[in-house]
């Protein structure tokens, strides 16, 4: 079973605050992804990484940034949160090119 | 760019019935992967089944099977003997075989299994 962890599970924060959503996996996967998902809606890729020091923007434009300093860790940062950032953020990882994604439980972010 | 379309926003069936969720996609690629993911309410997204485009045989996983029609670019999911635990959002997803291997998801189908 895949081990990929996201913290916090829920976050309510005021406008203008800086936040970091954590994502860690213990499987040694090179490829990691961040998806944004509004409730009951499709997933949109906002960032991905193919390894340490490799990050790319996804298909959906996002004001967030990511870093990949260690294989197991792929945090997402919002420098100044806004109500439009309210959503669920899902982190995922996989190893081989043909292997499926393993997802974390997600972080549900609410910006007031 | 690839697109994935799930035309059924919601479906509802009785327990033990068979249900089929539809998915179509658009791509110019010849080699790719297709997936069905399940997202139960407030729970983790998990893989249900996957299909490799170069394999003509339809994938099956216990009560779950797919009908892969490559020429029609169709990839439907059939759930047999449905159970209450099958209640979830179901997402169809596409991934190219080579290059930037990002998954592209459909809009999702909310499936409810009624007792």
Which characteristics define this entry?
heterodimer; A: 112 residues; mainly beta; 7-stranded mixed sheet; globular; B: 115 residues; 6-stranded mixed sheet; 4-stranded antiparallel sheet
Structure, described:
The complex is a heterodimer of chains A (112) and B (115). The radius of gyration of chain A is 13 Å and the shape is globular. Chain A is mainly beta and 112 residues long. In chain A, a hairpin with a 7-residue loop joins β9 and β10. In chain A, 0% of the residues lie in helices and 49% in strands. In chain A, strands 2, 4, 5, 6, 9, 10 and 11 form a seven-stranded mixed beta sheet that branches. A four-stranded antiparallel beta sheet of chain A has the order 1-3-8-7, with no helix packed on it. Chain A contains no helices and eleven strands. In chain B, the strands form three sheets. In chain B, strands 2, 5, 6, 10, 11 and 12 form a six-stranded mixed beta sheet that branches. In chain B, strands 3-9-8-7 form a four-stranded antiparallel beta sheet, with no helix packed on it. Chain B is built from no helices and twelve strands. Chain B is globular, with a radius of gyration of 14 Å. Chains A and B meet through β4 and β5 of A and β5, β6 and β11 of B.
Topology:
The complex is a heterodimer of chains A (112) and B (115).
Chain A: E1 4-7, E2 10-13, E3 19-25, E4 31-37, E5 43-51, E6 54-57, E7 65-66, E8 76-78, E9 87-94, E10 102-103, E11 107-111
Parallel strand pairs in A: 2-11
Antiparallel strand pairs in A: 1-3, 3-8, 4-5, 4-9, 5-6, 7-8, 9-10, 9-11
Chain B: E1 3-5, E2 10-14, E3 19-21, E4 24-26, E5 32-39, E6 46-52, E7 60-61, E8 64-69, E9 74-79, E10 88-96, E11 104-105, E12 109-114
Parallel strand pairs in B: 2-12
Antiparallel strand pairs in B: 1-4, 3-9, 5-6, 5-10, 7-8, 8-9, 10-11, 10-12
**Helices and strands of chain A, in N-to-C order?**
EEEEEEEEEEE
Class from secondary-structure proportions of chain A: mainly beta
Instruction: Report the β-strand fraction of chain B as a percent range.
Output: over 45%
Q: Give, in order, the helices and strands of chain B.
A: EEEEEEEEEEEE
Unreliably modeled segments of chain A: none
Quote the distance from N terminus to C terminus of chain B. 41 Å
